[in-house]
UniProtKB/TrEMBL annotation:
Its EC number is 2.7.7.6. DNA-dependent RNA polymerase (RNAP) catalyzes the transcription of DNA into RNA using the four ribonucleoside triphosphates as substrates. HAMAP family: RNApol_Rpo5_RPB5. It comes from Methanococcoides seepicolus. SUPFAM superfamilies: RPB5-like RNA polymerase subunit (SSF55287). This is DNA-directed RNA polymerase subunit Rpo5. Belongs to the archaeal Rpo5/eukaryotic RPB5 RNA polymerase subunit family. The keyword Nucleotidyltransferase applies. One of its GO terms (molecular function) is DNA-directed RNA polymerase activity. GO terms for biological process: transcription by RNA polymerase II; transcription elongation by RNA polymerase I; tRNA transcription by RNA polymerase III.
Length: 78
């Protein structure tokens, strides 16, 4: 029996942990600190599945009818 992956579900957008270089670019572009981003608890099932730890920033790529793709960023907290 194979393990079910939340990321395989069509309604769950793509999530990935950002590397520090890309994160620095995003924070500079929006002129914010990582702590000012919307939060994502480390206990969230998606955070657990991708191995996110407190202090990471997760990039969420959602499908958008108007923009094609919409990017969202979430700061992982305990």
């Amino acid at each position: 029996m194979s393990k079910f992956s939340l990321l395989d579900h069509e309604l769950i957008p793509h999530h990935e942990i950002m590397d520090e270089d890309d994160l620095k670019t995003v924070l500079t572009h929006y002129n914010v600190e990582r702590e000012q981003l919307p939060k994502l608890k480390v206990t969230d099932p998606i955070a657990q599945e991708i191995g996110a730890e407190p202090g990471n920033v997760v990039k969420v790529i959602r499908k958008s009818q108007t923009a094609g793709e919409a990017l969202y960023y979430r700061y992982v907290i305990e």
